[in-house]
Amino acid sequence: MDPLLKDWRSWGLMLASMLTIMSNATITPSLPGLEAAFADDPLAPILTRLLITAPSLLVAIVAPFAGGLTDRLGRRRPLLAGLVIYAVAGTAGLYLNTLEAILASRLALGLGVAAIMTSQAALVGDYFEGPARGRLMGYQMAATNIGGLVFVTVAGALAASDPRLPFLIYGLAALLFPLLAAILPEPPRFASQPGTGSVADNAEPGWQLTVTIMAAAAGLTFVIFYAVPTQVPYHLQNEGLTDPRDAGIVMGAMMFAAAVMSVISGWIRPWLGRIGTPVTGYLSLAAGFAGLSIGHSLGLAMLSTALIGAGLGFCMPTFITTALNVTPARHRGLITGLITAAIFLGQFLSPLASQPLTTHLGYSGAFRVGAFAFVALAFLLTLALRRQTPHATRPLRSQ
């Protein structure tokens, strides 16, 4: 057994990261039902889609500041405060009476997500080093997707009875609070020492450029990827698959595949390298989007989203792991905040980009555009990383 899995801190970090996937995707099966429940609101079609990505806007704005605070104040306090906000704001959709009020609660949820995600990602860098750090990122991604598989499937069943019931799932954060408080200790703070420079911090020369590339790649990836949770439920309805449980099953296939590939990516990343790992993921994402563009059955939709999940399982751990590996220790909170902000900004912008495409090209046309976009991203990321200086790219295959 991997020694990481014998460390309670690893399990605590996996549980914390699991909450981040719930922040958006859990209520996906509820979207058509919520739109129908608020049919008298002329903005319901766009507002219901924004319920998925509204937390992302706040995360994108707040995460860099939250990350900077964790570098100054420690990791535990932001993490535990985030759990409280998450539980209160996440369950508010159970009783609020307008879409606008629910949207406001989703924005508040983003504050909790920002605190949780930046704190737990920085703790990965504090607790673990080298290949163990990359493997734990893979395990975290697996945990988020296994959790997502369970929660979205359960949400689909709950939404079949009442589209508001899936909001109840966010209460899990309150149950995790005492457990995470007990098993995640505060690590020693990092202090810069005069004259030590980047070597003492184990920073890679040119790390600012690498972090910028990872942040840009993460943001663009999620602009495209989040067409799946925001548009697939409506695409399935358009294909005659109107049961909310169908959306839950299709999303579950994606999360299961992402969980498996996230674990695998942590082990094979040293061989594929910093470039090969996300490029492999992008090609799988492109294949999945192409499958959605031609599919007319539940089985093909499940296969397509499984390819999408597998691709994300390769890409997602790479963005933060690469940034942590090259970044000075004293800036880990800030850098994880920046990567987090890029990811969630991409999520928020996604429906604003995909909705006009589905209006003019239909769902199949929009997914076809997504497939071409992921191929283009694979090409551009390869060019961008290879243009770095030889010294900066020397560890590409060892990190």
Automatic annotation (TrEMBL):
CDD domains: MFS_arabinose_efflux_permease_like. InterPro entries: MFS, MFS_dom, MFS_Efflux_Transporters, MFS_trans_sf. The keyword Cell division does not apply. Pfam families: MFS_1. The chain crosses the membrane at residues 12-34, 46-67, 79-96, 136-161, 167-185, 206-228, 248-268, 300-321, 333-353, 365-385. It is a multi-pass membrane protein. Residues 9-388 form the Major facilitator superfamily (MFS) profile domain. This is MFS transporter.
